């Protein structure tokens, strides 16, 4: 087993500790579980032509980042819905259709953007 060290912002450390407490396990196991989860998400079957739903939540002040990523993938987006969740947060739902590489790319674009709170892809 390899030992690695990582750095993360304080808010993620707080999330890590909250998860650790709720799971009744150590920090390392929470990190391993998170990596397994992301790995399983990445392995979803994406073929040559796919339909999928992508949901992204974020603070409303980050609408420009969403619009920037969205503009790079207009050819995949069949429908886009933007809605306020509450006074400070929004949800964007994209219905996507196209090649698996493109769907994975838009999803990873949102995942890589630290200003997004949650990103969830469901392949149909």
Compressed to H and E, one letter per element, the order equals HHEHEEHE
Termini, distance in Å? Answer: 37 Å
Output the CATH class name of the largest domain. Alpha Beta
CATH topology-level fold name of the largest domain: Alpha-Beta Plaits
Sketch the major β-sheet. Answer: 4 strands, antiparallel
Q: Look at the structure and give the mean pLDDT.
A: 91
The share of residues in extended strands comes to 25-35%
- Separate helix tally: 4
Sum up the overall morphology in one term.
globular
Question: Which structural category do the helix and sheet elements fall into?
Answer: alpha+beta
Question: What is the topology, as strand order, of the major beta sheet?
Answer: 2-3-1-4
| Helix content, binned percent | 40-55%
Poorly predicted segments: none
Report the CATH superfamily of the largest domain: ACT-like. Chain A, domain 2
Total DSSP E strands = 4
Can you tell me the CATH architecture of the largest domain? Answer: 2-Layer Sandwich
Tally of separate domains: 2
Can you walk me through this structure?
By secondary structure, the chain is of the alpha+beta class. The chain has two domains: 10-42; 50-123, 2-Layer Sandwich (Alpha-Beta Plaits), CATH 3.30.70. 42% of the residues lie in helices and 29% in strands. The chain is built from four helices and four strands; from the N terminus they run H-H-E-H-E-E-H-E. It has helices at residues 10-23, 27-42, 63-71, 100-112; strands at residues 50-59, 77-84, 89-98, 116-123. It has a four-stranded antiparallel sheet, with helices on one face. A hairpin with a 4-residue loop joins strand 2 (77-84) and strand 3. Helix 1 (10-23) crosses helix 2. The longest helix is centred in the N-terminal third of the chain and has 16 residues, at 27-42. The radius of gyration is 16 Å and the shape is globular.
